[in-house]
């Protein structure tokens, strides 16, 4: 039984899909470059001590601190972790990497959706 030849238009690779594939590979390479990450926010808080004679009770600029906290959600609950001053930079870097991860995943998802739509269109 002779084989049917496909038309040359169907055999030619789609340049748009090739571009999507190249963009996808570039985004995956960026994923591989990510460092440690943690979800949440690093906050610097200034507190009042509760003593009525202390300057912090009347002047907001003279509150005690800053005290650093890492805040994140776990099972629908907010969790606050007090941080030592030397740990703040690591947690800030981790939360920045988390935001970068989320951006990359969103871009990968959008690109994948366009590529799949392009592959399956008639």
Explain how this protein is built:
A hairpin with a 2-residue loop joins strand 2 and strand 3. The protein is an alpha+beta fold. It has helices spanning 8-11, 15-32, 88-120; strands spanning 41-47, 64-74, 77-83. Helix 2 runs antiparallel to helix 3 (88-120). The chain has 3 helices and 3 strands. Helices cover 45% and strands 20% of the residues. It has one domain. It starts with 7 loop residues before the first helix and ends with a helix.
Descriptive terms for the model:
alpha+beta, 3-stranded antiparallel beta sheet
- Rounded to the nearest angstrom, the distance between the terminal CA atoms is 28 Å
What's the tally of helices?
A: 3
Cα shape: rod-shaped
Q: How many beta-strand elements? A: 3
Helix and strand run:
HHEEEH
Number of domains: 1
Structural class: alpha+beta
Give unreliable regions as ranges.
none
Largest sheet: spatial strand order = 1-2-3
Helix content: 40-55%
Summarize the structure.
This protein is of the alpha+beta class. It contains three helices and three strands; from the N terminus they run ααβββα. The two termini are 28 Å apart.
How are the secondary structure elements laid out?
Elements: H1 8-11, H2 15-32, E1 41-47, E2 64-74, E3 77-83, H3 88-120
């Amino acid at each position: 039984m002779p084989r049917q030849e496909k038309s040359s238009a169907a055999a030619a690779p789609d340049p748009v899909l090739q571009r999507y594939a190249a963009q996808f590979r570039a985004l995956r390479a960026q994923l591989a470059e990510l460092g440690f990450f943690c979800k949440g926010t690093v906050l610097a808080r200034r507190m009042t001590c509760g003593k009525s004679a202390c300057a912090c009770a009347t002047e907001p600029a003279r509150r005690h601190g800053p005290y650093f906290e890492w805040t994140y959600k776990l099972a629908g609950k907010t969790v606050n972790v007090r941080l030592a001053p030397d740990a703040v930079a690591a947690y800030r870097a981790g939360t920045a990497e988390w935001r970068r991860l989320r951006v990359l995943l969103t871009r990968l998802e959008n690109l994948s959706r366009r590529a799949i739509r392009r592959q399956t269109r008639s």
